[in-house]
Predict the 3D structure of the following.
Amino acid sequence: MNPWEQLAPELLTDLYELTMAASYFRESMFQEATFSLFIRDYPPHRSYFVAAGLEHLLELLRGYRFREDSIDYLRQTGRFSSAFLDYLSTFEFTGSVRALPEGRIFFADEPILEITAPLIEGQLLETLVINVIQLETLLASKAARCVEAARGRGVIDFGLRRTHGIDAGLKAARASYLAGFLGTSNVLAGRLYSLPVFGTMAHSYVTSFPTEMESFNAYAACFPENTVLLIDTYDTLSGARKAVAIARRLAAQGKSLIGVRLDSGDLATLSREVRAILDGAGFPDVRIFASGTLDEYQIEKLLEAGAAIDLFAVGTRMGVSADAPYFDIAYKLVEYGGRPILKLSPGKKTWVGKKQVYRFRDKDRAMVRDELCLVSEPSPGGEPLLEPAMEKGVVVRPVESLETIRARFNADRSALPLPYRAVRAGERYPVQISASLEALEEETVKAVMAKELV
């Protein structure tokens, strides 16, 4: 059987979520709980994150049920009582979700989303929520840094072939587009998400012909309206001169050579030399594309070296977020039965209670600080960031186009001061904790310590 046909969101979980749920069921622990999803700290050189994945999570929650075949599988494990399995057979998510809209910039310790639901419902969602939100937020955050490093030049996703699986490749294309990429080489992602698709040719195409010039002629004949030539298979500067000949031939037909691509060697020096060849031949509008293990660090280095590159094709390093392949993301219980809950494990402390994040700006609309508050306290002013996404199990957030999400990201990026956007950021954006939240945290710590220290 095709393994994709066996995909059951209700079983996309760790076993301990189900064993805890079974124990909660046996103990009749059905009171309302709130779980908060957040990232504890930044990977090196980073000072912000880009929220992504909410649309896909809501799709999964909208139809979250335990199908009969899933119940049968759980019964076969021999771990669960018939009463608990009967409960799961009628299970549906009845809770509420408040979340950052996709494309929003946010910071360490701020909730990306909070789920309030009967304890079992919230607990069962932990693994799914972390998996969906972490991947897309990770990829969008990496892509945003590539866009920043490119200084207004175009960036394209070329990462599908080395991403960690098919789904990751699709999500990388979508997440990078919402964070400012121009499009993707991933044709299926182009279809699924209505993304612009880009592509040139491989070195195997060039070498399959008797000569490089014959390969260029054949490609231009097949795609006269969209010719981009890969010119570094044998000798880059010789390839550039051949590209000039193709440009002249296309111009005689009333068409234009779109660009040339460099994929190896000293890209900074070669790009300048290729630019001189193209300009000297009267083709200043032919763009230079670059690819080859690029990410924000390489892009920044190339531009600092004076590279004459118009567009960057970013592949593996973005698609796997090579320098930061995971976030320290956590989904923690922060309230149960009206009682504030916290964790005091070293390095893994949590903030109690249902929370809201407020963003403050200066007179020019630039972001200056955020404040983390309890939902129950009066607004301190500023813009509240967490918005209702589901209420009583029903999705209340309209499906948004990627263009809308992309515009939201661009607005947040423009409002974030440059020191925090730097590729090697050294400053942390100010996130303050309200006095009420601080007081409840301290009060809860004292109560927990009094009970638990024996």
Notes: Residues 1-5 have pLDDT under 50 and may be disordered.
